[in-house]
Amino acid sequence: MECGTLRPIRRVMLIFPPFFDVKHVFDPMVCPPLGIASLAAYIRDRVDVAILDCVAEAPGHREPEGDLYERVGLSWNRILERIREFVPDMVGISCLFSNQFACVRVLSERIKQEIDPDMVVVAGGTHPSFLAEQTLLKTAVDYVVLGEGELGLAGILDAHNRGGRVEAIGGIAFRDNKGAIRVNQRTTWIENLNDLPLPARDLLPMEAYFKAGKPMAYHWRRRRNTPIVSSRGCPFGCPFCSSYLHWGKRFRTRSAENVLAEIAHLKSRYDIQELKWQDDNLTADRKRAVAIFRGMIDRGLAMPWNTPNGIALWTLDDELMGLMKQSGCYQITLAVESGDPDTFAAYVKKPFSLDKAREVARLAKKHGISTVAYFIIGFPGETLEQVQRSMRFGLDLGVDYLVPFVFNPLPGSDLWRTCLESGQITEEYAYEKGNHYHQARLNVAAFDARELELIQRRTYFRNLLRMPLRNPKEFVAWYGRQLFFQPDFLALFAANIMDTGKLFFQKAMGRPADNSSS
Asked: Where would I find the beta strands (DSSP E) of 77-205?
């Protein structure tokens, strides 16, 4: 690609596209996409930039995509209208989740065909980062930004506007001037996160998120809540996870003072009354975590907060959890992953034990902090007995919300490569179809995939039925909010119960499961 032929880029629109979801079953989250908000903040001194969140602007708009799926968010035509209104030279499309990939394909093609064939189209996020060649082959995208996106996107802008060489940019994929796909792996990471500007929330429809009331993991205490990220990277390398490859294997943090300044800004600028920590390992640096929580208390910044993405549970003890409670913590998520000792040893590389998980669950109850536990069932090679043992552990853990996810391979992860090599998935695997954590799409030798869905749903509902007795205050509060603020909650809940009953009936009658495996 010759730098002299590159189109100058003065205006950039970053798009968080619609989702593809199973019809009438799932209610997608509506929360600020901090990834593209961070990118916008990083490049806004180079170009004019706008953000279009297609889900937040039309969270209740659903259009059918075949017999089983719906697209949730703005219509294709409305998205194209918004692009025409802004008149960008570049459109960047986020693909944080695999069920957005079909939108990347459709949007990139329609932008080129209906708006401007020379428009520069960029894709980023976890899915295209790990399937860069497939993305460039199957879409009209010009560039893929791999992993941490600020440096790669800025490099592309500099190449177009200042005569730089695309070939020299690390962390991007593109077609060269002969049409061959080039993938420049990322070798440089942002060392000092304090140097990054705050996410450009001013470019987001913030009031729309408060109105929707569907933040990450759906749990909240105050409508005016927002996600916050204080660190990047994970050193542990669990084989089912791709996050540590996307953000880097080294744990990098913002300083406590930098984080507290953002919280103060969120409170004064947006009247934020609750925080959703999206860090993978918020408390991994204990000294920093203590400084953040103590600073929230001392500076009048204490407010309700939770950790919907999980927390470094191996760091938690009575003293730290007491401080967390004082600063506003009302809920923690324990990513236990498996309660079967053999599966746990094989797949969970984080430095904690099942006994530690029990201890943290007990301490949380002592401090009046509600608990969510994440498990994964159906790992490659896992037996039905191991799955059942894991779920018994989960039920005995005594957490308020037990969430078993069905294993499906995340692109880029070690187990994704294992599934490719074993033939369980192919290069044509349709990642974007369905909800990949509640639907079994891999048949394994040990048992039929339908068994996983049955075990998952049975375990979820068994734990749910125990909740009114174990924690009646939490049960009434959470379900009361859902009934009051989400008019369609009962309909979706009933649909899930009916779908569960259908699965059990199919099993009893010996009929095949009614889901797609491709």
From this structure: 90-94, 120-124, 143-145, 172-175, 181-184
Q: In what order do the strands lie in the sheet with 370-377?
A: 225-228, 274-277, 305-307, 329-337, 370-377, 401-406
- Evaluated on CA atoms 97, 386, 349, 401, the torsion sign reads positive
Q: What pLDDT digit, counting tens, does each position of 171-190 carry?
A: 999 999 889 999 999 888 99
* H helix runs in 332-471, sequence order: 341-347, 354-366, 384-396, 414-422, 449-470
Residue 113 burial (C-beta neighbours within 10 Å; 0-12, 13-18, 19+): exposed
Q: Is there a contact between 222 and 230 (Cβ–Cβ < 8 Å)?
A: no
Name the CA radius of gyration of the chain, rounded: 23
Confirm if 160 and 7 have CB atoms less than 8 A apart.
yes
162: enclosing H helix or E strand: helix 150-162
d(CA 175, CA 5): 14
Catalogue the long-range contacts made by 351-359 (C-beta closer than 8 Å, 24 or more residues apart).
351/236, 351/314, 352/313, 352/314, 354/393, 356/313, 356/314, 357/313, 357/397, 358/397
**Average pLDDT value for the chain:** 90
Q: Which of 135-139, 362-366, 468-472, 500-504 has the lowest mean pLDDT?
A: 500-504
Query: Does residue 6 surpass a pLDDT of 70?
Result: yes
Per-residue model confidence (pLDDT) at position 180? 95
Helices (H), 256-317: 256-270, 286-298
Q: Is the pTM of this model over 0.90?
A: yes
Q: What confidence score (pLDDT) does residue 1 get?
A: 40
Lowest mean pLDDT among 232-241, 270-279, 297-306, 336-345: 232-241
276 with 215: CB under 8 angstroms? yes
State the sign of the Cα–Cα–Cα–Cα dihedral 443, 377, 229, 283. Answer: negative
Q: CA–CA separation, 245 vs 232, rounded Å? A: 11
Place of tokens 């429809």: 205
Residue 363's contacts (CB-CB under 8 Å, 6 or more residues apart) are 316, 317, 318, 321
